[in-house]
Design brief:
The chain contains 5 helices and 14 strands. It is α+β, with helices and mostly antiparallel strands. A hairpin with a 2-residue loop joins strand 3 and strand 4.
């Protein structure tokens, strides 16, 4: 996965009102945490973040006060209506530290039974949970489903992963299944849980509780735009 650089600036003032002022200036409120260091409140340029997201990478080399840190985008909060970026969580990491992330599954081909109208294909897990070093993170995982028949499927363990990449969790879970057309498919609790958990996490990075966490909780309770500071 490509590593892109981004300049960050200290954010001495926090709070919903200050966050709104920052956003009007084209700056996104963010927090950097992990590696047993104190969390740091910062702002990053919106245009720079857009370039990073367009490139499809989550690895970011943040420059703050002349110091560079390798970080991973753990989470991005969006406005529920406009989808505008409200807040970003960066986790400190290193090139020797394995990460648990989710990567998009790209389905190639169409089963013949589906083309014939005899079968139906369901994608149960569209983001694959993997564990690997930062420079091994693939942009996507591709699987060919052309040969699938009714009653067959693709389990996580069946996916072709790049060298150094492994499934993070239960590799027996079905990611794709083909069944008779118009037959209702019931997903298992594990599959539902795997599909619901979409945000990537840095394994060793745990967000410190404090002012930042209290602010976020207060903003969520406030309703409306649910802006996180």
């Amino acid at each position: 996965m490509e590593i892109l650089a981004l300049d960050a600036a200290p954010r001495p003032k926090v709070g919903t009102r200050q966050a709104e002022k920052d956003r009007k200036k084209g700056l996104i409120p963010a927090v950097v945490y992990g590696h047993k260091e104190a969390s740091t409140s910062v702002t990053v340029p919106l245009e720079g973040m857009r370039k990073i997201l367009k490139a499809g990478t989550r690895l970011v080399k943040l420059t703050l006060g002349g110091r560079q840190e390798l970080t991973y985008i753990i989470g991005i909060d969006h406005h529920p209506i406009t989808d505008a970026i409200l807040h970003i969580d960066f986790g400190r990491t290193s090139m020797t530290e394995k990460l648990s992330v989710k990567v998009a599954l790209k389905v190639k081909g169409v089963p013949k039974v589906v083309v014939a109208g005899e079968g139906q294909m369901d994608v149960l897990i569209s983001e694959i949970p993997i564990r690997c070093l930062p420079d091994r993170i693939p942009k996507e995982i591709v699987t060919d489903v052309s040969a699938l028949e009714i009653g067959t499927g693709v389990r996580l363990k069946d996916l072709h992963l790049p060298e150094g990449v492994e499934i993070d969790g239960n590799a027996e879970l079905l990611s794709i299944t083909v069944h008779k057309a118009h037959e209702e498919l019931v997903a298992t609790p594990e599959q539902l849980a795997a599909a619901a958990a979409t945000e990537p996490e840095v394994l060793t990075a745990k967000k410190e509780e404090g002012a930042e966490g209290a602010e976020a909780a207060a903003d969520k309770k406030g309703g409306g735009e649910k802006k996180k500071e």
